[in-house]
UniProtKB/TrEMBL annotation:
Signal listed as a keyword: no
Protein residues bound to ATP: G143, Q144, T145, G146, T147, G148, K149, T150
Residue runs in coiled coils: 435-462, 529-556
SMART domains named among the record's database cross-references: KISc
Bias (Basic and acidic residues) ranges: 1-13
SUPFAM superfamilies membership: P-loop containing nucleoside triphosphate hydrolases
Record has ATP-binding as a keyword: yes
Lineage: superkingdom: Eukaryota
Region listing for Disordered, in residue ranges: 1-30, 677-697
Protein name, UniProt field: Kinesin-like protein
A Pfam family recorded for this sequence: Kinesin
Length: 785
């Protein structure tokens, strides 16, 4: 997993302050662990033959190839008569002319149909991954102008046409992203420079021109003043690339519409901090790189494994070099500025060739390698024969027109292949790398931040305390000021009083009449006595008036008290009377209810009597009729029927012909003899079910009730009279008396209100009782009368 550096939130690109530049410069390696074994290996060389351009196809001569790529994809034959060339490298003969065949073998040859991805995979990826292992790696695109160096190194921004640089960037960040090792930390920096007309300038800070390569015992060689930018994502690097590409010197030439007129070096530095024993995700990938040169791979692997045993910081640096193309001036027709550029380009490239030649001198003598002959060779010193894994991509045009340049390039590449480098893992164990210093600085800053936060808290509390103290002092000052002001005022008043008293005393002592004090003169005394007399008289009169008022008030009070007592008494009487009246009302109502019950009972008895009488008449009638038709005459029956039997009672029979007859007399009007007869026949009232036997007792009770009602009604009438005539008159008197005492009535408004209320109560009671009397039954009213 990527460490802090790669996970930091995106911020605008930061330039690394020059004070924090790594002590390792572009051409200088950091301090190495002595245990690290250098892996000596030759520079890897690839050639790429681009497809023929439209320009070449439309040449005044018919287009012809000069390049033959062998099936092994490693061998390349160049010939001016390539069509007659065989793979065995023998010269071809045509039209009597001998065309020699130049055969070269490289690590790989990419043909015109090769894709960008393929080139990256075989020629650049290993270098990129070795950078992630802490090696220096350089990929150099070399070749004649217009052969595809920039296309191969940069290519398109997106899509399959992307070149080595964008793919390398993606590879580095993908590696960091996928690193699952605990506590792995990365710091990636980028720089971009160009050498134009032998002047080094910073492509990311175009104002930084004429940079110089310096060397010091501790830091070694470095480009003084070159800006380095901390990058956290591919997008940030692309941003830098665009800035640099825009600043790079380009121009149109006969052979390339957009020819690079400068050598450009894009630098990516990857610092990596790993925990001891943490496995690197790039190991497997490294095998692929090792596969090309097995010996070196094992050593490098061992070196890297040794480094991993310890907690270490490794620094890998990737230099991606896009050289300006060599050109034949007589072909390009360059003049003026372009001519000057061409000369400089060719000069530096020949210096590069010289360095390669010196490094690959067949005599093996490396007494002098002319690195200092050009800025380019000086800059690439470590990449050529030094601590670096270097790859050269030699670009070739397939066209016969470019045969001399292609041959020159092929020879250069061939020679370069013989250069041997000694690459080491740049492992820094002495805390000198930027990453470690960054971490140290970060720790220090964090500690400082914590301290500052503590300080801020302390300071805040201190400020609060000071503020409280300031307020308390302000309050105290205000209190003291107020106290002083009060004291001054008090003192001033005291002084004024003292002065006034002194003045009065002084005036009094000075007020003398004829040498005598004024209060001692007779006139003063007479006047004083008169005044005293007048005042005494006034006071006495006032006392008398007050006494008189007091007596009047007492009198009125006594009168009011009497009225009050009277009213209380009347109220009590009223209450008692009302209670009695209520009692009477209740008993009258009870008696009345009883009376009504007896009336109802009597009515029921009378109804029963009527019914029995009707039954008796019907029975007698039936008996008479029976006697009349029956041959057997019963004397007893005849006796019982009496007059009925003889028909003398016929008139009566007629009168009672039917129970529902209209002329039927009331049962009470039955002939007395019939009743007597009934009694004589032994028919008792109880036996016949008649209520006749109860009638006398009911009548007595009824009469008793009527008498009680009459008594109650009389009492009620008497009470009504008392209430209306006596109590009403008394209350009216009180009310009248109160009205004659307006002051007292005003002084006792409650008394007046109570008297009025009592008066209303009496009147209402009288009205209620009178109306109750009017609703009495006539018998009762009679009784009451
Ligand atoms: N492999 C390729 N496939 C297709 N087109 C290519 C290829 N290589 C180069 N080209 C084309 O050839 C032309 C020249 O390429 P490029 O500018 O990369 O050359 P160069 O070597 O960088 O030239 P110079 O040295 O002048 O800068 C461009 O139009 C480019 O697109």
């Amino acid at each position: 997993m990527a460490g802090d550096w790669a996970e930091r939130p995106r911020t605008p690109l930061e330039e690394l302050p020059s004070s924090q530049w790594p002590e390792q410069a572009l051409t200088e390696g950091p301090t190495f662990d002595a245990s690290d074994a250098a892996c000596t290996d030759s520079i890897k060389v690839f050639t790429r033959v681009r497809p023929p351009l439209e320009r070449e196809r439309r040449s005044y001569l018919p287009y012809a190839d000069a390049v033959l790529i062998h099936p092994d994809a490693r061998t390349l034959s160049l010939s001016e008569n390539v069509s007659g060339t065989s793979l065995n490298g023998a010269a071809s003969v045509e039209n009597g002319l001998v065309y020699p065949t130049h055969q070269f073998t490289y690590d790989r040859v990419f043909g015109p149909d090769s894709q960008q991805a393929e080139v990256y995979e075989h020629a650049a990826r290993g270098a990129v991954l070795s950078t992630l292992q802490g090696f220096n790696a350089t990929v150099i695109a070399y070749g004649q102008t217009g052969t595809g160096k920039t296309y191969t190194m940069e290519g398109d921004r997106v899509g399959p046409g992307r070149g080595i640089i964008p793919r390398a960037i993606d590879e580095v960040f993908a590696f960091i992203e996928n690193d699952a090792a605990p506590r792995s930390k990365y710091l990636v920096r980028a720089a971009f420079l160009q050498i134009y007309n032998e002047v080094i300038s910073d492509l990311l800070k175009p104002a930084q021109r004429e940079l110089v390569i310096r060397e010091d015992p501790r830091r070694g060689k470095y480009v003084h003043g070159l800006s380095e930018w901390v990058v956290r994502s591919p997008a940030e690097v692309y941003q830098l690339m665009e800035v640099g590409a825009a600043a790079r010197m380009t121009g149109a030439t006969k052979l390339n519409e957009r020819s690079s007129r400068s050598h450009a070096v894009f630098i990516l530095i990857v610092e990596q901090s790993r925990a001891p024993g943490a496995a690197g995700g790039a190991d497997d990938e490294m095998d692929q790189f090792r596969g090309l040169t097995p010996g070196m791979g094992r050593k490098a692997g061992a070196a890297a494994a040794g480094a991993r045993e310890r907690q270490s910081v490794s620094v890998g640096k990737l230099n991606l070099v896009d050289l300006a193309g060599s050109e034949r001036v007589h072909i390009t027709g360059a003049t003026g500025r372009r001519l000057e550029e061409s000369k400089r380009i060719n000069s530096s490239l020949s210096a590069l060739g010289n360095v390669i030649a010196a490094l690959t001198d067949a005599r093996g003598a490396r007494a002098h390698v002319p690195y200092r002959d050009s800025k380019l060779t000086r800059l690439l010193e470590d990449s050529l024969g030094g601590n670096c894994k270097t790859t050269i991509l030699a670009m070739i045009s397939p066209a016969l027109d470019a045969f001399p340049e292609s041959l020159s390039t092929a020879k250069f590449a061939q020679r370069a292949k013989a250069v041997r480098n000694a690459a080491r893992v740049n492992e820094d164990l002495d805390q000198r790398t930027l990453l470690r210093r960054y971490e140290g600085e970060l720790r220090r800053l964090r500690a400082e931040l914590q301290q500052r936060q503590r300080d801020v808290v302390d300071k805040r509390q201190l400020l609060q305390v000071e503020e409280q103290k300031r307020r308390a002092e302000a309050d105290k000052l205000a209190a003291i000021t107020a106290l002083e002001q009060r004291s001054r005022e008090f003192m001033a008043e005291k002084e004024a009083k003292r002065r006034l008293e002194a003045r009065i005393s002084g005036m009094q002592s000075q007020l003398l009449i004829g040498g005598t004090k004024v209060e001692d003169t007779p006139v003063f005394r007479t006047l004083l006595a008169r005044e005293q007399q007048r005042m005494r008289g006034e006071y006495e009169q006032r006392l008398r008036d007050l006494e008189s008022e007091r007596l009047t008030a007492e009198h009125d009070k006594a009168k009011v008290d009497r009225y009050k007592a009277l009213l209380v008494k009347q109220r009590d009487i009223m209450i008692a009377l009302t209670a009695r009246l209520n009692e009477r009302d209740d008993s009258i109502l009870g008696l009345q209810e009883e009376l009504e019950a007896y009336d109802a009972h009597q009515k029921r008895l009378e109804d029963t009597l009527d019914m029995r009488t009707s039954e008796l008449i019907a029975l007698r009638k039936a008996a008479v009729e029976h006697s009349a038709v029956s041959p057997v005459k019963s004397a007893q029956l005849a006796l019982a029927l009496g007059a009925w039997a003889t028909g003398s009672g016929h008139g009566q029979n007629a009168a009672i012909a039917g129970p529902g007859g209209e002329d039927a007399p009331a049962p009470s009007l039955l002939a007395p003899n019939a009743l007597e007869e009934r009694a004589a026949s032994g028919d008792s009232a109880e036996a016949s079910g008649s209520p006749a036997g109860a009638a006398p007792a009911d009548a007595q009770e009824l009469e008793a009730l009527r008498e009680a009602c009459a008594v109650a009604a009389k009492e009620r009438a008497a009470l009504l009279t008392i209430l209306d005539a006596k109590v009403g008159a008394l209350v009216a008197d009180i009310a009248h008396g109160l009205r004659e005492l307006p002051e007292q009535a005003q002084a006792h408004p409650q008394l007046q209100a109570r008297v009025d209320a009592l008066q209303r109560l009496v009147a209402a009671t009288v009205r209620a009782m009178s109306s109750g009397a009017n609703h009495r039954p006539p018998g009762e009213l009679r009784g009451m009368d």
